[in-house]
Design a protein that fits this description.
Blueprint (H helix, E strand, L loop, with lengths): L2 H7 L6 E4 L11 E9 L2 E7 L5 E6 L4 E6 L5 E6 L5 E6 L5 E6 L5 E8 L4 E7 L2 E8 L5 E6 L5 E8 L2 E6 L4 E2 L2 E2 L8 E6 L4 E6 L7 E8 L2 E7 L15 E5 L2 E4 L14 E4 L3 E6 L4 E8 L2 E9 L3 E7 L2 E6 L3 E6 L2 E6 L3 E10 L1
Parallel strand pairs: 1-30
Antiparallel strand pairs: 2-3, 2-31, 3-4, 5-6, 6-7, 7-8, 9-10, 10-11, 11-12, 13-14, 14-17, 15-16, 17-18, 19-20, 20-21, 21-22, 23-24, 24-25, 25-26, 27-28, 28-29, 29-30
């Protein structure tokens, strides 16, 4: 076994591994795991079932990133990652395009969006202005901007129909070069979509970290950070990279070795049972169990280039840039190799 294979299937905790298909019970619900990725040099929107079998695959103009879903999960939105400028509304069962649009003039998309029952919100920006939220109706017709007072809005999720949460990285860039590395302002902001204004802003003590990815479940918010200076690693292994919003303060999670993430977290997902965070740069993912209203570290797993993660009831799914998809339930992990080099984010659609 070569080193790459060894890392792919070596684990820091005791789990049971099975290769091949994975088909744990989803209580008779039909589920589709949808993400974007690369196949034979071309970008695609892809869906697989819970056994890893393909459901649909459609070509995309360029790299896409996050997949968001509407309230009844009948539709999804796949959105370009900077420097792309397209967003595509599609039927979640077939992947067929409903409508595709381009970013407003002079703007690009940051790769993330969210739905409420009334509107669609997309993180938008350009190299000359502060970040904005582009607001659309549910048919993807542009309505208006919500102005933000910072650079680099990234992942966005709805708290309810009237408020959205945004992880703002704070970095001003041109052609991916950071212009304000020595003086950037990263935060999580809460926006009132009715009044179109920021109503809360939350920061962490360590302002060397850029907050980029977040997840909301049952109105609880968790946010992940990264170190924007890739030449620097913290010597202190206790420097936290994940924070939970409690009592109007971002409180750090505990982890035995935060440097395992190699200063970058690609995706986070949590539910009533656990939280999962992935790092393609660290070739690892971590799992925290949710016990007594607290996230408690459980286990560390190693997968080459792991990034996408989503959860459904008691089951977790993740994907890698090498084409592996994995499923875990009750300490049993099942894996399957696909031909898709998955991008950073996944989402589970079910009906």
């Amino acid at each position: 076994m070569n080193k790459r294979d060894f890392i792919q299937f070596s684990f820091l905790s005791s789990v049971f591994i099975q290769t091949g298909c994975f088909n744990h019970s989803t209580q008779n619900k039909t589920m589709r795991l949808i993400g974007s990725g690369k196949v034979n040099g071309g970008w695609v929107l892809s869906a697989v079932d819970t056994e890893g079998n393909p459901i649909f695959q459609h070509a995309l103009p360029s790299r896409a990133h996050h997949i968001s879903k509407n309230i009844d999960q009948s539709k999804g939105l796949v959105i370009a990652r900077r420097p792309g400028n397209y967003a595509r509304l599609f039927e979640s069962k077939t992947g067929q395009t409903i409508k595709e649009i381009s970013a407003p003039d002079g703007h690009f998309y940051f790769g993330h969006s969210c739905f409420t029952s009334n509107e669609i919100f997309i993180c938008t920006g350009n190299s000359k202005s502060l970040g904005k939220i582009s607001v659309y109706d549910l048919d993807l017709n542009f309505k208006y901007f919500i102005e933000l007072n910072n650079f680099g809005p990234h992942q966005i999720e709805a708290l309810d129909d009237n408020t959205i949460a945004i992880a703002v990285g704070g970095l001003k860039t041109i052609d991916r070069k950071i212009l304000n590395l020595d003086d950037f302002n990263s935060e999580v902001i809460i926006v009132d979509t009715l009044d179109k204004k920021i109503i809360h802003s939350y920061k962490i003590d360590n302002q060397n970290l850029s907050l980029r990815h977040l997840h909301v479940f049952n109105n609880q918010l968790v946010v992940a950070a990264q170190i924007p200076d890739r030449e620097y690693l913290f010597d202190d292994l206790t420097t936290p990279l994940i924070y939970v919003l409690n009592n109007k303060k971002l409180e750090p999670l505990k982890h035995p070795n935060w440097n395992a993430f190699n200063q970058y977290i690609a995706s986070i997902s949590f539910n009533d049972n656990q939280l999962v965070a992935t790092s393609p740069k660290g070739n690892t993912l971590s799992i925290w169990n949710y016990i007594d209203n607290q996230f408690k570290f459980s286990e560390q797993l190693e997968f080459i280039d792991v990034a996408g993660v989503t959860q459904f009831e008691q089951q977790s799914f993740w994907s890698t840039g090498t084409g592996v998809i994995a499923s875990q339930i009750n300490k049993t992990i099942k894996i399957k190799q696909t031909k898709i080099h998955w991008d950073n984010h996944w989402n589970a659609f079910y009906d």
